[in-house]
Fold this sequence. Notes:
Blueprint: H1 7-24, H2 28-34, H3 39-47, H4 66-79, H5 81-100, H6 103-115, E1 120-123, E2 139-143, E3 146-157, E4 164-170, E5 179-185, E6 191-193, E7 207-218, E8 222-223, H7 229-265, E9 267-268, E10 271-272, H8 277-306, H9 311-336, H10 348-356, H11 365-377
Parallel strand pairs: 1-4
Antiparallel strand pairs: 2-3, 3-7, 4-5, 5-8, 6-7, 9-10
Helix pairs in contact: 1-4, 4-5, 4-7, 4-8, 5-6, 5-7, 7-8, 7-9, 7-10, 8-9, 9-10, 9-11
Amino acid sequence: MNFELDEEQRLLVDSARAFAAAELAPHAADWDRDHHFPVDVIKRAAEQGFLGLYIDADNGGLGLSRLTSSLIFEQLAAGCVATTAFMTIHNMAANMLACFADQALKNQWLPGLISGEYLASYCLTEPDAGSDAARLRTKARRDGDDYVLDGSKSFISGAGSTDVLIVMARTGEDGPKGISCFLVPGNTPGVKYGRNELKMGWCSQPTRTITFEGARIPSGNRIGPEGQGFIYAMKGLDGGRLNIASCSLGAAQAALEQSLRYVEERKQFGKELAEFQALQFKLADMFTDLTASRQMVRLAASKLDQGHAEATLYCAMAKRFATDHCFDLCNQALQLHGGYGYLNDYPLERWVRDSRVHQILEGTNEIMRVITARRLLEQGGMLNNLL
């Protein structure tokens, strides 16, 4: 088992770090304050391949592993958590098209999604179907050569500013087997967008409710056979959990680096903060938590790349562990800065706000515990099968 990055991974990490330093970090505070969605910068990210990281090369993507993609997202998030988080969602939505759509639909939309000509939103959550996604009510009714969609989706990242909606809608019976997947152009008549939600964090990307009122799309816009949507959604969430955990790693690394600079510059009681043993211990614990979180995410990414039978379990555990510990690290970094950490002159309060939602989306961390405990209790007291 080799924990070292190979040469290609190091080059890609360096490239992502340089992009974050030049294009994301200098503007992140302004985007957050102004609630500005930096579409122009996201399109420049596409020039680096960042909007098609793990889409296979035959479909025009970079064809990277989920592990390598995680390394890249981590570095980008250190520059701007919210903007990187949107890019991870775009990657997940575009990859769903690449993996499951027929060739005609891919030819129509995928090149634009990879190049940044089109941006995508992922539409699963509904007002009455959050953690229990199988209860979704949005319907897609077959009408000749079309489908007609009615219903609503909530908490949709990028909504109102994206060109493509990957939508899960019910075409059949209640429960997961009645759900299908569709590509809905964002400007389809009958697609209506709510107000941009006022959120605690992730302020540099819009979040809206989407309502479908007789939105008509061609039957060719269905992704895969009817009844496969929930399976696609769950497969997408395995990777989505790694993506969002990677964003937490980036926020935590940035917070720790900021803290290290601060304790070497700030003096109290006649000496640098770095000389106080209590703060040395705090920094040591923060770095240990970051390293443990990083290894959990990379292990889960490796399991997903291998198609391991327990990949879903490992992705759930990694998401829960990393997002919890990285949020705590950001909060501790804020505390270490004292009153300065609470001011938006420093980025600490933004990292706390942005990383908090990672414990909620892509399946709440309580649901991650449910997944883990359920699989654990199926083992009859023996853990060897889960290793």
